Amino acid sequence: MIIELMSSIVSFVCALVAVAFFTLLERKGLGYFQLRKGPNKVGLMGLPQPLADAVKLFSKELVKPTLTNIFPFLVCPFMSLFLSLMLWLLYNNYFVCSMGGLSLLLFLCISSLSVYSVMGAGWFSNSKYALLGSVRAVAQSISYEVSMSLILLSCLILSGSMSLNVVMKYQLYIWIIFINFFMMIMWFVSCVAETHRAPFDFAEGESELVSGFNIEYGGIGFAVLFMAEYSSILFMSVLVVSLFYGGLLFVGGFGIFFYLSIGIVAFMFIWVRASYPRYRYDLLMYLIWKSYLPSVLNILMFLIMLTYFLNL
Fold first, then answer.
1. Which of 135, 140, 264, 286 is 20 to 30 A from residue 173's alpha carbon, by CA?
2. Residue-wise burial string across 191-212, b where 16 or more C-beta atoms lie within 10 A, e elsewhere
3. How far, in Å, are 49, 75, 171, 188 from residue 165 at the CA level?
């Protein structure tokens, strides 16, 4: 148990460090996409900028608006960060070996619970903008969890297990992306919607909701919500590589390719944000219920029949 605990703590610390420098990558990337430099004043080429931002945010005064329900208002951001870090228990460390064959079931449970922290952050703020942002976020998350669960089920049907390690071992000879390319595209779009990123950032629609569900948060509360969002983005990138790109092939002596693939997928989130304007909310809902859901169900039925005849 001591080894499991230490392994989990190391995963959490590494995830938080990755989150800090992923924010720098995003700001630099968006800067060059928009023909400007991005942060370059702090230290050498702006590299310590995430540390300066952390010092600034964590040293600011904790503002408590008069109309908020103080205790749950303060707890919700930390609950969001806790749930996003719990996902990193599925990362390929010692703990995942003791998870048995249900590691992806744990992913579905934790990703479903993360809706409550966003809803609570908006509800307990007692602000109309925060409430509207949280209602949008909950509707969006619940809708896209349907497609994510079904796409994940397609990978589980092919591999015959709910263990992430088994799904990775299944891709020893052929990656699932070659069998299931359209599922991979839909999975990535669902991940973008699930993490509330542009062009699906309706929960934080600055143009109409000021800042969405986190409008009343400042300083440490805003920083913790920010860290939770970016931690989820990085974990989704890990999951994309593990489920569709044969992650196990890159572990061990060729681990550098595994991390490079994760970096490329994470950079895709930034690239999408820089390239596309915000979608319309009704079109977002039509996309999942009228396009993705019928398509995923048809592909899923085909894969079930395919695996049935191959096992005869």
1. 264
2. bbbbbbbbbbbbbbbeeebebb
3. 36, 34, 10, 20
Rounded distance, CA 166 to CA 59, Å?
45
User: How far apart (Å, rounded) are the C-alpha atoms in residues 309 and 312?
Assistant: 5
CA distance linking residue 116 with residue 148, whole number of Å: 18
Closest to 125 (Cα-Cα) out of 57, 63, 65, 60:
65
Q: How far is CA 41 from the centre of its chain?
A: 30
Question: Looking at residue 258, what DSSP letter applies?
Answer: H
* Residue in this structure with the two tokens 């969890």, named with its chain if needed: 145
CB count within 10 Å of CB 130 equals: 26
Euclidean distance between the first and the last CA atom of the chain, given in angstroms as a whole number: 42
DSSP secondary structure string, 282-307?
HHHHHIIIIIIHHHHHHHHHHHHHHH
The CA radius of gyration of the chain, in Å to the nearest whole number, is: 20
> Tens of pLDDT along the chain (312 residues)?
787 778 888 888 989 999 999 999 999 999 999 999 899 888 888 889 999 999 999 999 888 888 888 899 999 999 999 999 998 888 765 544 445 578 888 899 998 898 999 899 989 988 888 888 888 889 999 999 999 999 999 988 888 888 888 888 888 778 888 888 889 999 999 999 989 888 888 776 666 666 778 888 888 998 999 999 999 999 999 899 888 987 655 555 456 778 888 899 999 999 999 999 888 888 999 999 999 999 999 999 998 888 888 776
The CA-based angle 33-140-295, given to 5 degrees, is: 90
Tokens representing 173 are: 């000879």
What is the rounded CA–CA span in Å between residue 162 and residue 121? 32
**All structural domains of the chain with their residue ranges:** 59-310
Residue 312 gets which letter from DSSP? -
DSSP 124: T
